[in-house]
Amino acid sequence: MIRVSVVGASGRMGGSVVEAVKAADDMEIAQQIDAGDDIAAITPDNTDVAVEFTVPTSSLDNVLTLVAQGVNVVVGTTGWTDEKLDQVKAALAKAPRQGQAVFIAPNFAISAVLADKFAAEAAKYFTSAEVIELHHPDKVDAPSGTAIHTAQAIATARKKAGCAPMPDGTQGEAASRGQIVDGVHVHAVRLQGLNAHEEVLLGNTGEQLVIRADSFDRASFMPGVLLAVRNIASGAHPGLTVGLDAFLDL
User: Fold this and answer.
1) CB neighbours of 55 closer than 8 A, spacing ≥ 6?
2) How do residues 138-170 score in pLDDT, each as one tens digit?
3) pLDDT at 30 over 90
4) pTM for the complete prediction?
5) Phi, psi at residue 6, to the nearest 5°?
6) pLDDT at 81 over 90
């Protein structure tokens, strides 16, 4: 049995993870940690993998603490920057146990991972590309980590293909054009009734391709979470891994 501890266990996603682990035949809950609890209770003696679903302001400290305690971590909290990832890599280089692992997912939904992959494949064939992400109003970060990751994948694919900069005749200050991530405009919508949704719009003269992924319920993330836990628990992925596509046959 894979012993799984959950940090942020009473949150929306954390609670779903707890139930998913309890329902899995090869896993069991070890520790449930929330704000105010001592994260030091999670150790290699009682935990094979800790799943961290909290908030961006707390996630880095949680991960660094768990790594220092010798614990493998699967992270679902968004808001990760290159600087934060570098801190995790540095912590893993000094980790107390050989082969320790941290996995960070911009999104655990299989549909979102595939949409990201398809967008990167298509981007080099289109003159223009923009990303729209739509979430419930309780989401604390904008744009979403998924949308940022998608924009970065689009930009990387276009750069490798030698694409020209995307046309944009907008003049002056225009906040409505969204945040620019590596040259790709990303727009965030927060609307009651939504859960987690993303559209990638790609256009050429006279044609458009729309790639859309919809997660209507948090249950859609759980197969990806369990897939990540199993892979990290296996010991086959030491160090830092980012993106669920690392565990999919893509």
Assistant:
1) 77, 140
2) 988 899 988 999 999 999 999 999 999 999 999
3) yes
4) 0.82
5) -120, 125
6) no
β-pair partners for 133 = 188, 198
Catalytic residues: 135, 139
Query: What is the Cα–Cα distance from 207 to 96, expressed in whole angstroms?
Result: 54
Dig out the tokens for 218 from the structure: 């948090």
Of 174, 185, 169, residue with least CA distance to 132? 185
Contacts (Cβ under 8 Å, ≥6 apart) of 93: none
pLDDT computed for residue 250 by the predictor: 64
Phi and psi torsions of 2, nearest 5°: -85, 120
Contacts of 221 (CB under 8 A, 6+ apart): 13, 16, 76, 107, 108, 109, 215
Instruction: Give the chain's length.
Output: 250
Between the CA of residue 178 and those of 142, 148, 232, what are the distances in Å?
A: 10, 12, 36
DSSP state of 167: P
- pLDDT tens per residue across span 177-229: 999 999 999 999 999 999 999 999 999 999 999 999 999 998 999 999 999 99
- Sequence-distant (6+) residues with CB within 8 A of 226 are 20, 21, 24, 27
Phi, psi of 215 (to 5 degrees): -110, 110
What does the radius of gyration of the chain's CA atoms come to, in whole angstroms?
Answer: 19
